[in-house]
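Protein in question reproduced for absentees:

***
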Amino acid sequence: MFYLTQVGVLFIVTVALAIVTILCGPFDRHGKRVYRINQIWTWLILRVGGISLKVSGLENVEPGQQYIFMVNHQSNIDIPVLIQSLLRFQLRWIAKKELLWVPLFGWAMWATKHITVDRSDPLAALRSLQRAKERIAAGISIVIFPEGTRSRDGRLLRFKKGGFLLAVQTGTRIVPVTINGSADVLPAGGWRLRSGAIDVVVDKPIAVDGYRAGKLRALTEQVRAAIAAHLRPPAGRQATAARETLEPLAGSERLEKQSA
């Protein structure tokens, strides 16, 4: 019963705020005013879901500055978590174009001026980078999930280079951000929110001076290492690893007893 009530509240809130966002979006050039609606919506999602946040490292970033926040990705709840963790910043996402076709959610993304990418069209991808540059110039920070998709087991996937190219071309510092616990609250592929705590670690900005478009490996490795340094596996994978460790030990104990 509680779960059905939770779903009902979230549905009503999402529909209402999405409609307001869609109606106001065309009159908001960079989506700065309607983004405030996103902040209200995400606060309600976490509140109704019984999700608490512990954010550390905010002293490493300055309000009023533009950054490219690069974040590990494990769950659909990562976006509300980031919006609430970085309340002092206007954030826009670079996401796949297909999300625009999701009723209400995709339309609200368009109204808030998030940046979508058609991965099958190189020219469209270049236009998306140009839109991202315009957002940065307007005082907006960009959020990128460099893995490109959600990790199913908590391990970092291979990083894609598009976000690093944007950082170098605009001279925008990269801030590595690590999220822990989101996969336990809402696993990849799941839709049922579980109450719990999520930790967010905001690392120090990384300057991109001296890097070139064709020489991004060192920068990529530096950002990846910073995210990995604070990353811990989801609770489910920890339990699996513990079982895998204990099972051989239990087997050897049984053999010892049988031989005795």
The beta strands are 51-56, 68-71, 91-96, 115-117, 141-144, 174-180, 196-202.
